[in-house]
Amino acid sequence: MQELIDRIRTLEAKSQVLEPSENLRNEELSRVANYANAFLNGLAESKTFVFSEEMPDRFDITGQPRSIEEILSIYKQEIAEKGINAASGGHLGYIPGGGIFASALGDFLADVTNEYAGIFYASPGAVAVETALIDWIKNLFSYPSEAVGNLASGGSIANLIALAAARDKHGIKGDRIIKSVAYLSAQTHHCVTKALRIIGLEDLVLRTLPIDGRSRIRTDALTESIRKDRELGLNPFLVVGSAGTTDTGAVDPLFEIGTICKEENLWFHVDAAYGGFFILAASVQTLFKGIELSDSLVVDPHKGLFLPYGIGAVIVKDRDAVFHSNRAGADYMQDAFKDDLPVNPSDLGPELTKHFRGMRMWLPLQLYGTGPFAACLEEKLALTKYIRIKLGDLGFNLGPEPDLSVTYFWMDWGAESDAFNRHLLKLIHDDGSSYFSSTLIEGKFVIRSAILSFRTRIGSVDRAIALISDCLAKTRKHFDKTS
Ligand SMILES: Cc1ncc(COP(=O)(O)O)c(C=O)c1O
To answer: Is the terminal CB of the chain with fewer CB neighbours within 10 Å at N or C?
Structure first.
């Protein structure tokens, strides 16, 4: 016995470093805080994009300890200074997030106390926070109080949860799969078809509905398509609308689609991952009319609420449909899973052990209220109008006026337009002081501007325009020479 106790004591001493003293904690905290402050203070001058083809290779687990200084230095050089600087206000590509500082404080608390957010019994407080956040989202979108929701890791998983609920509500399995029809548009985010594959619906009939000149689903085509599919003996069951398309910033006609879905008894899912929180902006609120008719909805706080990556929300009206795919018991959970306790987040999504991600959202909403978020979203809409004017002044062709904050542009260079705009974007990327991404619209190469980072201010847009203007002049010269 004594031998065993001695061994335990030796092992305890060897692993004591995992529980640093208060002094050491303070020292490490202050070093990390100093690094974070230097990073944030330097953001305005930092590059937004540094292209790197090589895999950073200083991350090997050698088994030996390293000092916090060395780790921070590696972090700076190999992580923070390579690729897209997603914290930068110059990030106008893809769908930028931002990463407000208060969320880091929320994460810090959640990590230190290590709440087990998947189960009410384990952390009633964490579950209550997440429930309050879901209730707030339900309220924003006029969902009924009996609707349920989940804070997932992002829009893709949130969409997956909703689509699985649609599948189960309509009993799409076995032989029914190949006869069942889902409707979406060419502007629907690709995570939707990916989710359909993951949930076993790869073989259903997918109808890509035509869109109008502003990228919105044409509801006349939806009605017609449903009618024809029924005539063919098929089983229409799902329509996916977008409240904010990734490429074009468009909001589908939600009220019309919702009305059709009610009449036809189809599940109406709205992917509002990018655009949903613009409902806080009074100037565009009417675009969201009808969203309350949907059966499920996804909205990403790590996009429209400027939170750091790793949080997407889903709300679903039919609790039993969500339970069908997610609720499961086990003998070893018998103390925690009790019918008289509130619903567990683990009953509403695939995760059991769950990071307390609600804290990164709840803390900033408590600290600031919702006003600054609404103002920031309005500002992004105004900046989108501003950048379009500036781009027009430079001679660019512009995509149609977007509903929200993603727009696209291209320089007309005749038969060489695609090559011209590719070259222009390459120069922008090589410089890296601002970042734009590209897409194809009806097969044509265009440059996208997505304004959603809370740090994108008028100064960031002016800097981006100066960069584009400079690269445009160089591209013109290059193409004048080669033509
Ligand atoms: C409209 C839309 N839906 C879904 C997603 C996927 O979300 P995530 O990247 O958080 O998984 C995105 C991402 O940009 C999006 O824009």
So the answer is: N
